[in-house]
Amino acid sequence: MKSLILNADKILNYKPEEQPFDFESIQGVSGTLFCFSGYIWDLRSIRYVLWLQRYSQQFESHGVSSVLVLPAHKQELSTFLMSIPQKINFTLIADPDNNLLRQYEMEKSGFVLVNNQQNVLKRWYANDALYLGVRRVLDFLQ
């Protein structure tokens, strides 16, 4: 199966062995904030969705795209999207094998900010992410 981009805004199916990941299709002008979560119906995942719904527009206005990466298949994400009352205005990536988690050397759920050369600028793990705000993230792009 090839990687698919659907309008949800976007759901990407990450299968690096079949097609290289197209980072340029999701990157922001200044960088990209990846949010790695666990099981899609886990409370932490739902909190991350709500957090991204709240802040992704602000990030976008500063040139930072927001991406939620879940260890699920594309079909599971489609079902999840149908149950959410608000529009998702950020990219979702179905990464059932946690390839992106390993690629960005994340030990567990959390956020990673990367620049457009795909260099990691900062990692925040779940406990740190509770207090993560737009200004705190943008400070690492300076």
How would you describe this protein?
The chain is an alpha/beta fold. It has a single domain (5-141), classed as 3-Layer(aba) Sandwich (Glutaredoxin). It has five helices and seven strands; from the N terminus they run E-E-E-H-E-H-E-H-E-E-H-H. 32% of the residues are buried.
Q: What distinguishing features does this structure have?
A:
7-stranded mixed β-sheet; globular; 142 residues; 5 helices; Glutaredoxin; alpha/beta
Structure at a glance:
This protein has 142 residues and is an alpha/beta fold. The chain has a single domain (5-141), classed as Glutaredoxin.
Task: Summarize the topology.
Blueprint: E1 5-6, E2 10-13, E3 31-36, H1 43-61, E4 64-70, H2 74-83, E5 91-94, H3 99-103, E6 110-114, E7 120-125, H4 126-129, H5 134-138
Parallel strand pairs: 2-5, 3-4, 4-5
Antiparallel strand pairs: 1-2, 3-6, 6-7
